[in-house]
Amino acid sequence: MKRKEQQSALRRRKKAKTDSDEQNDEDRISKLPDELRSYILSKLPTADAMKTSLLSTRWKHTWTSVTNLEFDFGQFPKFKGRNSAFTKFVNQAIITHDGLDIQRFHLQLYAYRSKLPYARFWISFAVRHFVQELELCIPKIALDKLPDLLFTCESLRLLKLDLSGNVLKLPTSVTLINLQTLHLESMSFRDDNVVWELISSCPKLENLTLNNCSMYGMKILNICSSELQNLSLLNCQTFSSCEVNISAPKLKTFRYHCSLVRKLSLEHVCTLTKADIDLHGSLYFVKRDKELSNRAIRILKELDNVRTLTLSARCTEYLSTAIDLLGSFSCNLRTVKHLDVAFWSHKSYIKVLSSLLKCCPTVETLSVGIDMTFTGYSDVPLKNVKTTIPKCLLHKLKTVKLRNLVGVNKLDLVKFLVKNAEVLEKIITVSKEGVVKERTVEWIKSRAQSLVNSNRKTT
After folding, report:
1. Domain range for residue 372?
2. Maximum C-alpha span of the chain
């Protein structure tokens, strides 16, 4: 009996200690300076930050001084009256905000399916509170025109606009003098000058992305910026009849994942170090049109200063077609040190790879992979293709990485590399399952010689 009483007393003491520790933990957080508690709440979604007002009197108004405001209609509970409840929630958060400057304002209305006049008021609120990072995802049905004062916001450092279905229209005055990052997505440009005017108003612009934008009706896309360092043109539609002129003396990286444009021009781009090219569009017409093949080659010729070059499987298919139609292709890529190329599994690609490597005589690392996402068609069944090993001296190539390669293509490529790469040190293979193996060239040659000797003995 005495032992049970002792155990019961011990449990009570442990529980009291736990309650005391929890109370102390709560007190320690509550006793933090207001600025620090506000900073912590700024890392939470705005809806969660608002709920902390129920904790205690000391927490009641802390959330009103958060510097990050995030409103996502897609995360709002689905129930009857959802639209009006979301509007009331955002209005309450904005009206009760204590007036401090806003670091980041994020408004996601992608799932909103009706007119929302309050959206203009919310955006204007962020601008008037000197917002630095503004991210808007608003379909045309919710808001068809952005407030003019957005385009004269001097505090903006980052602006992301995802305006599904909207045509970008600029006010008379555009001055975004401190903007460094601009991301435009899912909108239309109907005027040749609209993008140029917007970029020209951003003298400090360093990062520019155009993603899934329509260029319908445009003949020229001019991108001119003295400070631009990173440029991405991704999945842009109706691009084939457009001429793209890029003038950016400080450009370092260039991603182009679009259809073939009529002409691509890179002017005053001496600092470009990295390019990633993925050409979209139907290959049915490319295989019958020399002009389209020439367009693909001309894009490569514009990259004569790049050091790291990545080419997708569709891009190498364009080059393969160019060889079939034109007999060969050539361009000066003497600065390329790192080359990453992909192919489709049904193709014998030694010919196009050797042509490409001749354009890159100083390449030091080569990565070759198979794109398994496309099965496609083949003009000639691979099993009937007889591949010869072309001569293509590679004086600098030291490291090769092979991804997802199997069968005859893998053997032919290894033979090609061992034959032509004078200073090759190692070959790294990565299987579809992710198994990595690293072999020295000496090991490969020794293994090959052993197989030859074994065959001789059996005969």
Report:
1. 273-459
2. 100
